[in-house]
Design a protein that fits this description.
With about 400 residues, this protein is α+β, with helices and mostly antiparallel strands. Helices cover about 30% and strands about 10% of the residues.
């Protein structure tokens, strides 16, 4: 991580804002909602609330001499930090009924008070940098909390609503246009000031052949055309693993889509809604994204092509986290926001990558195997957490993330 410490005076407001947003996102969910785990890859809401508090206890408050709120929480709420010690198995997080959601609230309040006290007494540069890392870590879990809650509520039999809102207008899909990118020797990766995760650097040069990038994401209307042309039934478009995946799972449409009276709808956190043709398609796997690109006579961009193409429009934003929406907005020329965009790149270290020393160094590097990179940001990414060099990553079969795609061609 680029552990750049801001002035300590700025941290008080940031701690309050980030920690309060987590609680605001959890507030519409009952204690029962917050306890259940819908699948092994997801986590209960109360676990996210506790884990992001444990992170501050383990890496900041403990080293500063603060006693833990409850010694058992280190086992219950450690995620994957081997150097810290043993932990409760991830697939069984939903079996933890105690502590309950209310007790987790008291735990968070305890950690908040300890953080405020530590900041008031003055932080050294290293401590301040850990606070910044912890806040960014919590913002990641805010997006995961939304993803996991959607997966949980989407499996309920009677269309549970998280945040009611009016239906979106049936905006048409914008025309698909292409922008030429010169290529050549370009610099990619984070090499400037400000926070970045260690997997975003070091900045380095890569050679790109000239290519074209679609000026908008693939939309629901586009995807309906793929489905109408039997895209899910034609093996010539699919990677071998992808073809096996759809045979095993029965996928014939993106996650949360269903057909009612001949019309396609999608389940959102505001309930079941008609598909909006001009919105980016969302909740598709890498396998589906790759198959669609082949069907369309194009391909997915590499992450380096994506970053280079996004640089001229990096100031533009689509829909980011709005707790009253939590759904993509209309497709447009922006490349950051609405949906994370699958790239063709495997998640691998950049040349010269060195993990941070200690347990915190387990944060990203240990996952650089059998994952694919997504770029941009989504409608569940907190504002201010997004940036051009951000490297998100998921397994090829993952669909519960707010994931879509953009086409490229040589």
């Amino acid at each position: 991580m680029t552990l750049t410490a801001p002035p300590v005076s700025d941290l008080r407001a940031r701690i309050l804002a980030v920690r309060s947003l987590t609680e605001a996102l959890a507030a519409p969910l009952s204690a029962e909602d917050q306890t259940v785990q819908s699948m092994p890859d997801a986590s209960p809401t109360k676990w996210h609330r506790a884990h992001t508090s444990w992170f501050f206890e383990e890496f900041l408050l403990g080293p500063a001499g603060r006693a833990p709120y409850d010694p058992s929480f280190g086992y219950l709420f450690n995620s994957y930090y081997e150097a810290v010690g043993p932990r409760h198995p991830r697939p069984h997080r939903g079996l933890i009924t105690r502590p309950g959601a209310a007790e987790i609230g008291r735990y968070r309040a305890h950690v908040d008070a300890a953080l405020a006290d530590l900041v008031s007494n003055g932080l050294d540069e290293e401590q301040a940098a850990v606070v910044v890392l912890g806040l960014n870590h919590e913002q990641q879990h805010q997006e995961l909390l939304v993803m996991d809650a959607k997966h949980l509520l989407g499996g309920q039999p009677f269309g549970q609503v998280y945040a009611a809102r009016p239906a979106d207008p049936a905006t048409p899909s914008p025309a698909l246009t292409w922008r030429a990118v010169e290529g050549g020797l370009v610099e990619v990766g984070h090499g400037g000031t400000g926070f970045a995760y260690d997997n975003e650097g070091p900045a380095h040069r890569v050679w790109l052949e000239p290519f074209e990038i679609a000026e908008r994401a693939v939309t629901n209307e586009d995807w309906l055309a793929f489905m109408a042309d039997d895209g899910y039934e034609r093996p010539e478009f699919w990677l071998s693993d992808g073809w096996q995946a759809i045979g095993r799972t029965g996928w014939r449409a993106p996650e949360y889509w269903s057909q009612q009276d001949g019309e396609w709808t999608t389940w959102t956190l505001a309930g079941q809604r008609p598909l909006v043709p001009g919105e980016p398609v969302c909740h598709v796997s890498f396998y589906e994204a790759d198959a669609y690109a082949r069907w369309a006579g194009a391909r997915l961009p590499t992450e380096f092509e994506w970053e280079t193409a996004a640089r001229p429009v990096a100031h533009l934003r689509g829909q980011l986290l709005d707790p009253q929406r939590l759904h993509p907005g209309p497709a447009g020329q922006h490349m950051i926001g609405d949906v994370w965009e699958w790239t063709s790149s495997a998640y691998l270290p950049y040349p010269g990558f060195v993990p941070v020393e200690g347990a915190i160094g387990e944060y990203n590097g240990k996952f650089m195997s059998d994952q694919h990179v997504l770029r941009g940001a989504s409608c569940a990414t907190p504002a201010g957490h997004e940036r051009l060099t951000y490297r998100n990553f998921f397994p090829a079969s993952a669909r519960w993330a707010f994931s879509g795609l953009r086409l490229a061609r040589s």
